[in-house]
Amino acid sequence: FTGNSVAGINSAVTGTRLTNVNNLIQGLGRLGQNNTAFTNQAAGIIDANISGATLTLDPVAEASVLDGGASFLNNGTLQASNGGTLALSGNGGGNFTNAGTIKAQSGGILMFDGTVTSSGTVDVDANTLNGTGSYTQTGGTFRLAGGTVTLPSAILFNAGLVDARGTINAAITNGANLQPALGGSGLTVNGNVTLLSSSQLTFQLSGLVQGSQYGFLNVNGTVALNGNLVVSFVDPFQATNNNNFTVLSSTALSGAFVNVASGGRITATDNSGTFLVTYNGTTVILSDFQPAGEVPASSSATVSGEAGAKDAEGDAANKPVAGPATPSVAVNATPAADPATTPASDAPAVTSPRKNPALRGRSGTVALKVRNTDQLLELLEGSGATTANGKVTVKAGPAQKAGAQPRPTANLPAAGSQRDHQPKIPNSRRAEGPGRTMTGPRIAN
Fold it and tell me: For residues 251 and 240, what is the distance between their CA atoms, to the nearest angstrom?
């Protein structure tokens, strides 16, 4: 069927259906006339491809009892191309059900003047969709890549994916995965946005430029938060703790995300690290990225073990194997002093790039500056440090020097045991004093 024509069944009998059995219908004119419904099969193509002209699809309401209530059932492709206009009209009172693809390309214009429901694909691309009807998505994909959508009533994205950048002149109620696409200046919505509990609001990060390199939703209206916030990286970009991303802006925010409160942290989808999430007033901001394995500066840890142990040459047992960055250790305790004569409160702070002076049975506070928890373990390697339940535990015994072969760990005496029952430590002085627990080392970036 090609050209300027009208296709339909000239019959007064209701319930008549015209089926395109996998053919190409193109040009301008009207499909749906005198009580005609329509089915476009999977390989069928209906193409409004004449510049400045309109191909109108206008099924009637009386036929909606057929094919599950769809006056116009599309399993194939409906498209506007080459500057043509494809109009899904509601003049006949019918409705449109899309399980295939509806798209605009090469300057084509889509007009939704009827009631359109889609579980397939609607692809506006960089073109235009407007009309006087309504659009509901029950699944599938809605794609906008720099184009414009204008509808009088709220767009209902109940499920599926909404991958969009450009402009939507309509309110949005979202229960789908709403993903402001990368490119341009992001997605602008001129209308209120309501996120349902099933909603997923996804932001991709591929750089530091708002819109073009990371997803941005700009709402000239209110936003009611709900559902889940999702953040994903686009390789090879990796954020740092100095980067801030304003991913959403509105005239007013209300509600909260289900999976992260304002002031909480969210993990990127690739588990590479976490962001601090702040939303209040009008914006949602991601900041303070912490790579996986790093402990935020405000965190603390507990280190426990037998203090004061000596290695074979009398050095402190906690002497670490030097790491690539040679981290420093500051100990506020008595460095190799006699615990019987020197109070811990009078001990000077000692800093060494290579070793931790013996605490000699006293407790104290150790401040560690490390890149991550792996480096913390490197720092305490000589003491056989292990981690469990958020604690770093240092086993008693002589330390292993850098480059030395591993030596068995000596068992130090428990508090109250008899010294003449202690295991012998070859070429070493025994540790003095009972086990001690050092609390509160602060780990900075």
Answer: 29
**Alpha helix (H) residue ranges in 341-400:** 373-379
Q: Does 244 map to a domain?
A: no
CA-CA-CA-CA torsion sign (254, 259, 262, 267)? negative
Name residues whose C-beta falls within 8 Å of residue 346's C-beta, 6 or more positions apart in sequence.
Answer: none
| Single-letter amino acid, residue 415 | A
The number of domains in the chain is 2
Query: Do residues 82 and 220 both lie within one domain?
Result: yes
**Residue 412 belongs to what domain range?**
294-445
Query: How do 273-280 and 283-291 pair as beta strands?
Result: antiparallel
Tell me the whole-structure pTM to 2 decimals.
Answer: 0.67
Do 127 and 199 share a domain, yes or no? yes
Contact 282, 252 (CB under 8 A): yes
Same domain, 205 and 310: no
In a domain, 261, yes or no: no
Same domain (yes/no): 159, 306? no
Taking only the tens place, the pLDDT of each residue in 206-238 is: 999 999 999 999 999 999 999 999 999 999 999
* Same domain assignment for residues 313 and 210: no
Residue-wise pLDDT for 283-341, tens only, equals 999 999 999 986 555 444 444 444 444 444 555 555 444 444 433 333 333 334 444 44
CA 244 to chain centre: 15
268 located within any domain: no
One-letter amino acid at 263 equals: G
Last residue of a domain, one of 187, 218, 235: 235
Q: Given its phi and psi angles, is residue 131 left (phi above 0), alpha (psi -120 to 50 degrees) or beta?
A: left
The neighbouring-strand residues paired with 148 are 128, 167
Q: How far apart are the first and last CA of the chain?
A: 69
Task: Give yes or no for a contact between 265 and 271, defined as CB atoms under 8 angstroms apart.
Answer: no
Closest C-alpha among 299, 292, 287, 355 to residue 327 = 355
CA distance 17 to 398: 89
Q: Which of these three, 235, 254, 278, is where a domain ends? A: 235
When the pLDDT of each residue in the chain is averaged and rounded to a whole number, the result is 76
